[in-house]
């Protein structure tokens, strides 16, 4: 008896030494946690190390076109979490919380086996055990069902963690996360150096769920304007700073209202005239912009249309020929940029 007890105790120690959790990560999900990190997160949430888990849990992280998924499998069934974000951070937290709830539920579950009889014919409580083949009733009266004593109460699952395959939506990190963005694309300037002129733009920014701030550069494709006997070659290199606030929309698409300042150096070089000069002036304008953007994933876009209120109007004229171009009181800037975003 003593030898058997020692073997049983050693077997229990070996069983508890085994991790209660295994993790696999598919292609594209290498940034998701491994078993050691996930176990550490679970123990941090529960406030104690897990040494007596009733069952084993297998977690599989995968990545598809719709984001990240985590499949949690155990003896009670399977659960699936998903997240459309660009990283596995929120899914890692949601998976750790779900595992902590399942382990707490297992710890509260009463033993599922009926008391066993020992060699002396007594149960663990000391009551005599029913002998095999003994009549179930006295004088034909029905006896209480012995099987009912061995049926455990219905297991109380944590909310949203019932048995069977279920799918849950993990909280998205994009809703309140701070992001760094880099954007580049094409733009069109209206009413600045001529009725329409193409340009290129690039910017870097930082933002959250309801706001973003950017700084960038604007380069005007050099323009040649025929005027009288000669021509004027116009170039513009400027910078921009703007702040945007979300007016409407969701994670997928949002509408922003933006404003800030555009500043640059406008240069006009004359050729073909009696006297050819080069003139330079500062260009300053305040934009009032409406922007449609998708910034929730690693790649997105930004479409903007802004009215440009010039702080000074830049009109050029040639002596003896007249004004080459008279700019309107309000200009416009339309832009289309591709955006890359990184969650901090």
Which terms summarize this structure?
rod-shaped, 3 helices, disordered N terminus, 344 residues, mainly beta, single chain
Summarize the structure in words:
With 344 residues, this protein is mainly beta. The protein is built from three helices and 15 strands. Strands 6-7-8-9-10-11-12-15 form an eight-stranded antiparallel β-barrel. Strands 1-2-3-4-5 form a five-stranded mixed β-sheet, covered by helices on one side. It has a two-stranded antiparallel ribbon with strand order 13-14. Strand 13 and strand 14 form a beta hairpin. Helix 2 crosses helix 3. It is rod-shaped, with a radius of gyration of 36 Å. The protein starts with a helix and ends with a strand.
Overall shape: it is: rod-shaped
How many strands? 15
Number of continuous helical runs? 3
Question: How confident overall, as mean pLDDT?
Answer: 78
Range of helix content: 10-25%
Label the structural class.
mainly beta
Brief digest:
This protein has 344 residues and is mainly β.
Write the layout of secondary structure elements.
Blueprint: H1 2-17, E1 21-25, H2 35-46, E2 57-64, E3 67-74, E4 77-83, H3 89-108, E5 166-169, E6 179-190, E7 196-207, E8 211-227, E9 230-249, E10 254-271, E11 278-294, E12 299-310, E13 316-318, E14 322-325, E15 331-343
Parallel strand pairs: 1-2, 4-5
Antiparallel strand pairs: 2-3, 3-4, 6-7, 6-15, 7-8, 8-9, 9-10, 10-11, 11-12, 12-15, 13-14
Helix pairs in contact: 2-3
């Amino acid at each position: 008896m003593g030898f058997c007890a020692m073997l049983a105790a050693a077997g229990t120690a070996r069983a508890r030494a085994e991790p209660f959790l295994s993790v696999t990560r598919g292609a594209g999900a290498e940034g998701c946690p491994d078993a050691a990190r996930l176990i550490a997160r679970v123990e941090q949430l529960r406030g104690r190390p897990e040494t007596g888990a009733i069952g084993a849990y297998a977690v599989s992280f995968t990545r598809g076109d719709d984001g990240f998924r985590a499949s949690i499998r155990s003896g009670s069934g399977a659960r699936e979490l998903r997240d459309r974000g660009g990283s596995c951070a929120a899914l890692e937290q949601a998976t750790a919380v779900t595992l902590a709830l399942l382990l707490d539920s297992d710890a509260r579950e009463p033993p599922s086996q009926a008391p066993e009889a020992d060699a002396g014919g007594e149960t663990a409580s000391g009551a005599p055990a029913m002998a095999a083949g003994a009549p179930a009733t006295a004088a034909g009266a029905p006896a209480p069902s012995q099987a009912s004593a061995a049926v455990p109460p219905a297991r109380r699952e944590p909310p949203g963690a019932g048995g069977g395959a279920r799918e849950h939506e993990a909280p998205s990190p994009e809703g309140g996360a701070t992001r760094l963005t880099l954007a580049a694309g094409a733009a069109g300037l209206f009413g600045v150096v001529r009725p329409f002129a193409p340009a290129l733009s690039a910017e870097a920014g930082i933002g959250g769920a309801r706001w973003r701030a950017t700084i960038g550069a604007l380069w005007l494709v050099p323009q040649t304007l025929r005027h009288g006997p000669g021509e004027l070659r116009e170039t513009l290199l400027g910078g921009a700073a703007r702040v945007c606030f979300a007016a409407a929309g969701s994670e997928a698409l949002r509408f922003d209202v933006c404003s800030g300042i555009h500043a640059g150096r406008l240069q006009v070089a004359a050729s073909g005239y009696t006297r050819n000069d080069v003139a330079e002036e500062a260009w300053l304008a305040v934009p009032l912009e409406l922007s449609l953007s998708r910034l929730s994933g690693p790649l997105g876009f930004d479409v903007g249309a802004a009215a440009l209120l010039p702080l000074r109007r830049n009109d050029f004229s040639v002596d003896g020929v007249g004004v080459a171009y008279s700019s309107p009181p309000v200009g416009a800037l339309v832009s289309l940029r591709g955006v890359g975003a990184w969650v901090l």
